[in-house]
Each structure stands twice: as C-alpha cells, then as structure tokens.
Give the backbone structure.
Amino acid sequence: MLELTPILQPDEMLKTLTLLKGCKRIVMFGHRGPDGDALGSNLGWAEYLRHLGKQVTIVMPDMEPDFIKWLPNIQYVKHYCNDDEKPVIRKAIATADLLCFLDFSQLKRVEDSTLIDILQKSKAKRIIIDHHLDPDIHNADLVISRPKASSTCELVFRLIYQLGGYDKLSRSGACNLYCGMMTDTGSFAYNSNDPEIYLIISLLLKKGIDKEKIYRNVFYSFSQNRLKFWGFLLNERVTFKQGGKAAIIAYSGEDMAKYKFKRGDGEGFVNEPLKVRGCRLSISLREDTVQQNVIHVSLRSVDDIPCNIIAKEYFNGGGHLNASGGELKCSLQEAVRIAETAIEKYGDVL
Ligand SMILES: [Mn+2]
C-alpha cells in the first residue's frame, strides 16, 4: 500500500510546531502575477492556520487572472495594488508575528519597493514554503524548499497531512490545493511522475471535490477574444528554429490591444509549439502593456533541456528545469535576437 512520505524531518517538524505555536497573527504572501498554485497554496494553508485559531491575512501584490477568480474564499484575499487596501495590509504586516511566503522563493518577487521595505523592517518570524530553486534562506526562520515537488500546493497538502490537519480539511480547501497541483503540472501532463501525487489526489477527491469541474473552470474558460488571439498567435507569431527543434513566440502590445487582451490571456500559450513533433524548446516574448521596453519571457522544454539555465543566462530569470521565466529591458526585436542567440548556443543539446 502506497503511503505518503513525511515532508518534514523531525527537526523541521519541531521548528514548524514551535513557530506555529508562538504566533497569533499571520500574514501570507504569493508572488506577483499570482497563478493557480500561488493562490491555491495560500488559501489552503490559510484554512489550516485558521483551524488552529490564527488570524490570517493573505496578500497578493496584484490581481489574479480571470481563470482562477472562482477559487473558493478568494474574496478574502487582499491586493497590494489596490490603494484602498494598502492601509489594511500595512497594518496587518505591522502587527503580524509570523509571515508566510508560499510559492515564493525570493522577497524581491513582490516587486514593489515600499512593500519590500515594510517586509524587511518587520520583526515577525518568517516561513518559506516553495518548490522554486534558490530560496532566500537567509531571510527566513524556516525554509521548506522542495524543488522536485509538482507544486507548492502539493507541499502544503503534505504539511497539513503530517501536522494532522487532514480530517478538518474542507472541500473548499481541497479544491484550492487540487487546483494548484493541476495548473502547475498542465493537468498532470508534466512534472508529475511521483506516484504519491496520485495518492494525494485521491485524498483530495475524498473531500468531495469535482476535479472535472475544476478542470473546466480553468482550461475551458476562454473568452472569444482569447480563443481568436491564440489563433492569431499560431498563424502569425510563432517561428520555428533549428529545423523545428525550437520555437520563438513574440507578440507586441499592439497585437494584444487588437484582441482586447486581458491578464492571463497569454497564459499557457508557450506550451503550444511543443505540440509539434520534434519541438523541444519554446520561448515566449511578450511586451509589457504599460512599461516601454519591458519584455516578459517564458520558457518551456522537454526532457533534460535546462530552461532554468537558459533563463538565467539570457533572460535575467530562472525557474524549473522544464518551465522558467525571465524579463528583458529592451525592444521586442532586440528580445527576439537574444532568443535566437540562446537557441543557437543550445542548438547542440536540442
Ligand atoms: Mn508553483
């Protein structure tokens, strides 16, 4: 019979229990551009902490995309980008005795200098729970970093389970955790070969979640504009390189305006070129809709092609082996040239 391997070593368990015991007011954070995993893990962990009698505030630097707006209890999430919510958030941080950073390895990922400043000044203890590489270990009292895990939601489930909180986990909490595991693995298409993941899923299903509905909510929720935008990108904005082994996607603010682009409309498109037989690396370059000369970069690969190393070397970024991101401060044309150089340099391993 398959059993869930404990996530915490005995010394980590002791540390976790001590930190949780010693706090009353907790503020939790997800990264900028929150995705299913960032929100799901925060909402799931918050539910557990509330069961322990803690006062919890969840803060996201900016708004979530439409395809995860339906998550249970998302209405309680605060957004630092909203001026009228800033005072509440600042007060919560000022009085907090514990800060939790989930799906979030580095403080700088908040990307707001005032917020970073407030966080750095806070005397509260800190916990990082994450599956990205290179966690900011010097800035935390406890780091639960598992880069091989499918998602932070998986880590949060394992934590709750080991801490004895599974019985009290609600259907809403289970739904949040399932959603993050599903979105971070492309619905269990990648990064999900660990058999224990399916044990976790069965434990979540026992809570009464409807995984088919969760799937439809996330993946079958395109607007007509978004579907047509994807058609446009496929036709006009994908270029294959190295005999089809790599692809570059590049689209401008003008392209987006034409299709009434909304946040999240480009999400997942970077995977499309990998559907072509033989294509092993895909690089997406998207102009920022507000700032000039800012290009958002997204990379996906298969097998052992190291997206994270390419992202670090060429795109001021990083991430996982097969899924990474970065950012360039240049024109879209210049970004395309950089992507071409990167693909050429890695041509031998493609
Ligand atoms: Mn994640």
Summary: The mean pLDDT is 94. Residues 32 and 111 are 7 Å apart (CA to CA). Residues 10-219 form a domain with the inorganic pyrophosphatase (n-terminal core) fold (CATH 3.90.1640.10). Residues 37, 103, 131, 151-152, 184 surround manganese (II) ion (CB under 6 Å).
